[in-house]
């Protein structure tokens, strides 16, 4: 049985999405989402905090993100967590957790108005 590592983020893009194509010809878009939240514990339990999450969106979903989103866009991202591990040039083990998007909702997307003739 597989374990579950699913996440839902509601926040704002911190930069414009970056669309790339892999050597296998698949498109992938990367962007970062800032999520404002309340820590809810300790002396500063009422203090707001910001967490930043790196998101990876593949193929058509990623292409749509690159076309319609920009820095400051509000989004809701649903996806799986993935941890990448590697050795640095100094031989140190490094790791990074990113979100592999299964759904990206454009929360402040406005359709272009058609002009009546």
SSE inventory with pairings:
Blueprint: E1 6-13, E2 18-21, E3 27-38, E4 48-58, H1 59-68, E5 74-87, E6 93-106
Parallel strand pairs: 4-6
Antiparallel strand pairs: 1-3, 1-5, 2-3, 3-4, 5-6
Question: If you had to describe this structure to a student in words, what would you say it looks like?
Answer:
The protein is built from one helix and six strands, in the order ββββαββ. With 117 residues, the protein is mainly beta. It has a single domain (6-106), classed as Nucleic acid-binding proteins (OB fold (Dihydrolipoamide Acetyltransferase, E2P), Beta Barrel), CATH 2.40.50. The protein has a five-stranded mixed beta barrel with strand order 1-3-4-6-5. Strand 5 and strand 6 form a beta hairpin. The chain starts with 5 loop residues before the first strand and ends in an 11-residue tail after the last strand. 15% of the residues are buried.
What's this model, at a glance?
This protein is mainly β and 117 residues long. 9% of the residues lie in helices and 54% in strands.
Uncertain parts: none
For the termini, the CA-CA separation is: 59 Å
Shape: globular
Helix/strand-derived category reads mainly beta
Continuous helix count: 1
Tell how many strands the DSSP assignment holds.
Answer: 6
For this structure, what is the CATH homologous superfamily? Nucleic acid-binding proteins
């Amino acid at each position: 049985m597989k374990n579950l590592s699913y996440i839902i983020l509601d926040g704002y893009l911190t930069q414009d999405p970056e669309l790339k194509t892999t050597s296998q010809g698949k498109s992938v878009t990367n962007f970062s989402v800032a999520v404002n939240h309340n820590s809810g514990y300790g002396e500063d339990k009422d203090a707001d905090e910001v967490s930043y999450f790196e998101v990876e969106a593949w193929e058509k979903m990623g292409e749509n993100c690159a076309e319609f989103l920009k820095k400051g866009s509000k989004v809701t991202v649903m996806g799986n967590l993935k941890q990448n591990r590697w050795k640095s040039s100094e031989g140190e083990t490094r790791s990074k957790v990113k979100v592999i998007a299964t759904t990206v909702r454009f929360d402040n997307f406005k359709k272009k108005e058609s002009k009546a003739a």
